[in-house]
Hints:
Blueprint: H1 11-19, H2 26-30, H3 34-42, H4 44-47, E1 50-54, H5 57-66, E2 72-77, H6 84-92, E3 99-104, H7 111-122, E4 129-134, E5 140-141, E6 143-146, H8 150-161, E7 170-175, H9 182-188, E8 197-202, E9 220-225, H10 234-244, E10 250-254, H11 260-267, E11 274-277, E12 297-300, H12 310-318, E13 324-326, H13 335-346, E14 355-359, H14 371-376, E15 377-381
Parallel strand pairs: 1-2, 2-3, 3-4, 5-8, 6-7, 8-9, 9-10, 10-11, 11-12, 12-13, 13-14, 14-15
Antiparallel strand pairs: 4-7
Helix pairs in contact: 6-7, 7-8, 10-11
Amino acid sequence: xxxxxxxxxxxxxxxxxxxxxxxxxxxxxxxxxxxxxxxxxxxxxxxxxxxxxxxxxxxxxxxxxxxxxxxxxxxxxxxxxxxxxxxxxxxxxxxxxxxxxxxxxxxxxxxxxxxxxxxxxxxxxxxxxxxxxxxxxxxxxxxxxxxxxxxxxxxxxxxxxxxxxxxxxxxxxxxxxxxxxxxxxxxxxxxxxxxxxxxxxxxxxxxxxxxxxxxxxxxxxxxxxxxxxxxxxxxxxxxxxxxxxxxxxxxxxxxxxxxxxxxxxxxxxxxxxxxxxxxxxxxxxxxxxxxxxxxxxxxxxxxxxxxxxxxxxxxxxxxxxxxxxxxxxxxxxxxxxxxxxxxxxxxxxxxxxxxxxxxxxxxxxxxxxxxxxxxxxxxxxx
Length: 382
């Protein structure tokens, strides 16, 4: 019987095997025999267009060998780093590098070290962005920062080194040429496998944050505008609904304005249990939230010109598990009675789940006299 050996495989098969080996083993692979070395060289443009490495000596050797082919690089700086001169010299030779992500573990990297690395990268002719993953990996991503320039980036390290900033888990992007941060975030997100909660302040057009919606274990998202609106939110909210409709539990929206289609997109995140929202300019938009049948807590952070009744009652009726509802508005005079009637119809009369209703103080000046109503509604002043 004929025996097939490893060397009987064609070059495509050998290259495929090489592509599945850890990067630290690639240099050893090329040293096995001349054929393996030739395959590594011949397929280098495809094998090394995107690389994920540490700054260990063996992996930096691979980076130097494949440098002309590398377009996208993820580099994890280890606890016992290679001398910085070796690292910066290696990075400075990556003539075709377009995007780099640096994972910094805060283990001995000084501001001077970071400055040398960033200044080296900044000189590369084709570089588009630098992504940073900072701090010890955690379930909470506290910040997604955008740096105006390298000076801005480096100043954040000075603040941290001086103890003026809490050492939290966060990411940042330095785009060059006023480019988008979307691709840089797309490079970062696959490395956020432990993240369950994200605090997101929109400093750029909302569309550029689309990759954040792809965090696999995202359960809680807080989204804010800290200044003027940054374009329509619909692309971001639609992507969030498509990717996280069965996963996202808590959503906190601190924005100034929501269009009806944007509220509809929120309503497609069927797994939501806790929703806090501002920016709903028309009471009629609230009707869309009746699709959120799993809601337990709902909070509105704005006052409407008209007194509310019908749209909020529709949500109460549609959400059988709703336990807490906060409203900033003065409600219609008979709202509490109408809410009681809705709850009577939709909840178990023997063991009704009470609705804690947080409304403006003037709404709770008088106590509820009807004991039946008190079984269903507990008023909480603000």
